Amino acid sequence: MNRESRNYWRQQTRHNQRYRRSYGGGGGAFASSPVTVILIGLMVLTTLIGLVAPGWSFAVAAIPGGRLLLILLSVVTPGSLLGLVFAGLFVWLLGSELEASLSRWQYLLVFFASGVVGALLGGAVAGFGLGGSVAAFGLAGAYAFLLARSHGQGASLQWVLILLLINVVLSGFNMAALLSMLGAFGTGLAIMAVTAESRR
Predict the structure, then answer these.
(1) pLDDT the model gives residue 37
(2) How many whole angstroms separate alpha carbon 49 and alpha carbon 52?
(3) What is the pLDDT of residues 64-77, one digit of tens each?
(4) CA-CA distance, 161 to 177, in Å (whole number)?
(5) Cα gap 44→48, rounded to integer Å
(6) Is the predicted pLDDT of residue 189 greater than 50, yes or no?
(7) Beta carbons within 8 Å of 3's beta carbon, 6+ residues apart
(8) What is the mean pLDDT of residues 135-141?
(9) Which fold has domain 3-194?
(10) Mean pLDDT across 182-192
(11) Buried b / exposed e along 73-85 (16+ C-beta atoms within 10 A)
């Protein structure tokens, strides 16, 4: 995160001290970012379940309404230990900052809607997959929107291009992965644009 971004988030955090105080003064990470901690905890839990019972997703899909439930569960399921590390770190870095700046419903809407859209777009190309890793890109889209509002389009565009370039390389130019990331990112950006007036 560059200096401009850090200064912006410090201002946002000070502006939202009332929000943070509502969880009490102590308690460390959970007290200051409870939703983010819970989301990462769910990612860890679903990853552990996947290691213990690798076929769990097929079992979920087989029950009535299981396909819909599986899509929702996919948002907190990175799919691998490496995916958990990257997604968890990404969610912590961006999510904890966004949680201090957005209402809970905005934050959760960005996370879950972008994860679902990312999973569905990737699934349209390569079959249904897990969306936990791409939900983090929805948070990146929300972050980019707020950055653009506070520092102008140039700072936001530079940050977005660097992020996308890194992930293009890391994905190995996998079309399904790129489509998932772009879809999630665009969804997070769009949600912030639509709900901007609802910010506190």
Answers:
(1) 94
(2) 5
(3) 877 788 878 888 88
(4) 17
(5) 6
(6) yes
(7) none
(8) 88
(9) Rhomboid-like fold (1.20.1540)
(10) 91
(11) bbbbbbbbeebbe
pLDDT digits (tens, 9 = 90+) for 19-56: 444 444 445 556 678 999 999 999 999 889 888 888 77
Angstrom distance (rounded) from CA 191 to CA 115: 13
- By the 8 A CB rule, do 46 and 53 touch? no
pTM for this predicted structure? 0.76
Distance of CA 122 to the CA centre of its chain: 16
Side chain identity at residue 172, one-letter code: G
Q: What is the DSSP string of the chain?
A: --HHHHHHHHHHHHHTHHHHHTT-S-SHHHHH-HHHHHHHHHHHHHHHHHHH-TTHHHHHHHSTTHHHHHHHHHTT--SSHHHHHHHHHHIIIIIHHHHHHS-HHHHHHHHHHHHHHHHHHHHHHHSS---HHHHHHHHHHHHHHHHHHHH-HHHHHHHHHHHHHHHHHHTTT-HHHHHHHHHHHHHHHHHHHHHGGG--
